Sequence to fold (714 residues):
Amino acid sequence: MLARKRWWSSAAALRAIRATVVVPGLFALTYKVIGDLQMATFAAFGGFATLVLASFAGTRRDKVVAHGGLAVAGSALLVIGTAVNSSPWVAAAVTLPVTFMVLFAGIGGPNAAAGGTAALLAYVLPAASPGTLDMLGSRLAGWWLASVVGTVAVLLLAPRPPGDRLRAAVAGSAGALADRLDAALRGAGTDADRAATIDAKHELLAAFTTTPYRPTGSTVADQALTSLVGMLEWATAVLDDGLREYPDLRAVAPVERELFAATRDTLRRVATLLAGGSEPPDLAGLHEAIGASVAALRRMPAGDGEFADAVHQAFHAQTSALTVRAAAVDALIAARRADPATVADQARRWYGLPAARVPRFGVFELAWRHANLRSVWFVNSIRGALALAAAVLVADLVGVQHAFWVVLGTLSVLRTNAAGTGSTALRALLGTLAGFVVGAVLLLVVGTGPVALWVALPIAVLVAGYVPGTLPFVVGQAAFTVVVSVLFNLLVPVGWSIGVVRIEDVAIGCAVSLVVGVLFWPRGASAVVGDDVADAFREGGRYLAQSVNWALGLRHQEPEPARAVTAGLRLDDGVRGLLAERGTRHLASQQLWRLVGGTIRLRLTAQSLASLPSPDAGPDPVSDALSGQAAQIAGWFDDLADMLVRPDAAAPSRVPVVATRIPTLQPVAAAADTATLPCTLWVEQHLQHIRPALDSLVEPAAEVARLRRIPWWR
Fold:
């Protein structure tokens, strides 16, 4: 029963049915009726690319746009591939930038990433096959015929859209936080309430991170949804800290209790909005409650003995409310319910840019931020480009019968690390061998007569269309080999020997992938993630120090968040790539998320301080002391980053001493002048809030350093 559920997928079944109807149908139309061999070849492979290799998500409109983009991009790549195939050296040289751009374009969103392999098929098929420019018309006609008919088939035979898992998880997290606050306001909070918020947070992170690429695109609404995930993760931590100190909110000051109640109501409406409701969060009410809390604090005499405790309560209440307010604004934008001014203001926080540059932020700015060896997209795009260029050159120089099979073999087994590529190459060869045996037996039984082969073709396509994502990779390779054997015997009846040729070509392609994997970044995403975590800690510490000085009036230029935001973006993609890897030793997921959570807490704490107005105050002993504490924390994160980047500098048997010297922060704000006491107390609360998190980062960071000392082949 469990095996049946694991192997059965209604979405895969519909995909297989679409491919079975379209691919053989187009092949029959173009080969038997129209009688154009080039059109038939590109219609068949174009149909397979459109219906099997590309899997676009979203609404019907999203799918039409994505398939249209694939058709246009594929046409351009087909023209380029046809133009360069006369010279192996020219073809290899052109393959480098073409492949890099196609793979790197995946930073634009999930559909851009999902269509990468299908788009590359439109290039490698003509680039690694004999042909001349006078065939271009027939090839383009076959590709466009497959694109149009395939898109129609996707729209007509599409499964009922499942609930958006990410939006459902966002709604679940916000709802769980609202429930916990409600219980605390009634004095009925339990450990089960806390566990529910943690479980909801884990479900949210799983929905956001377990896909090979970010499940949100590059539109404003997508960016808001991405930001909302981070804000709810942060809200979970902030509320947990506050409710651990004040589990019964009936005991806090009335004004703070009202603020917590407004925060609860806002979370409730965020959950409703993301679940498909129409009632927006009451931002005006929340803003009014925040203002009342601030006013109450200002009215209290700074020298009052209860002032410090009042600040402590207000810190937790206001920090929670401000975090949830930012989340509510993100929710409004994600639901396309926000005005342009709100979008522009919020975008400053997303991108870490000055207001003047936000409107110009787009694809080129995003690409520039990822144009770095710390970006897993950049590294993987380079590796893929080198592998495919080498495959094109090797296939042409060796003189194999079907060079594009070599390139396809390279593309299908290339993974982000050498170990993963090696294991996938072995499975590809086993699958191809199995497919050869099945195809040979089939051809021996039914012969190479056209009637039997035309009957076998839709059956083979049905199996090959169902396998991806449901059955093991070996089965997929075997099924595709059978399709190739039948298809090419319809074109040229040569019998089972076509399978032998495919085994040889795939073996060459696997070897190319393995060599490139060993020579270029053999550790894959694991090495990139280590560097990304280090960058996020280092840039987050710098941003924190700047924000503290800004909030104390010691810095008159606004803090610069762009580098910290960029490091966070690269870390997110790096972790996603690491989780998608197979065949390597990984850091335990709990330790990995502890590090990622530490970078988020650091950056958002700095962001919270940067949002405070900078007072018109000069240096004084208390401000200098708090600035020094922030510098100590930033220095500690620098040391932690150094340990991650240079693991060989640490003794293998122990945690580096520098990482265990966690700063001890002494309370100093109470000695401030009455005029600056509220400001200094607020900064001190932020620093004290981040200090306990440092202890939990030492062990996972040391484990990362240890794993990076282990040779990749082990």
